[in-house]
Fold:
Amino acid sequence: MSDCLFCRIAAGEIPSTKVYEDGKCLAFMDIGPVVQGHVLVVPKEHFANLGGATDEIAGHLIAVARKIAVAQMKALGSAGFNVITNQGAVAGQTVGHLHFHVIPQFEGRAHKWNWDAHPYADMAEAAALAEKIRGAL
Ligand code: AMP
Ligand code: ZN
Structure:
């Protein structure tokens, strides 16, 4: 897509600081890192988001994200990592081309996520939601 930022980066029309490339995907440094060393993994083919991608692409991107996260630990000394994707504005997606964030986490200066739990009233509530999800698979 000619008006898509990450399609243009994948095509080399917009510069990026590349970390990895193969026939299906590209990984490059995020220009607005949550943590120094933050990498994005994107498919070369345009998919708006993970829900709209194929299993093959989703699996390949996760495999590459895992390799990059392990390389970050080896090369940068990170002790762990987060691999996330945001789907939809409601989830914080700002670029409409599928991407996984690979974010290194360092001991003593870990980036904290807002991970507040909102417990179920009871297990029947969880079971009803599970039933709905199973029905849609
Ligand atoms: P999201 O909010 O999940 O859609 O993430 C989009 C990410 O793309 C943000 O972390 C931005 O910092 C990053 N970003 C936007 N433009 C560029 C660019 N030209 N090169 C590298 N990263 C970018
Ligand atoms: Zn695109």
Summary: The radius of gyration is 17 Å. Residues 55-76 form the longest helix (22 residues). The chain has a mean pLDDT of 97. Residues 5 and 95 are 7 Å apart (CA to CA).
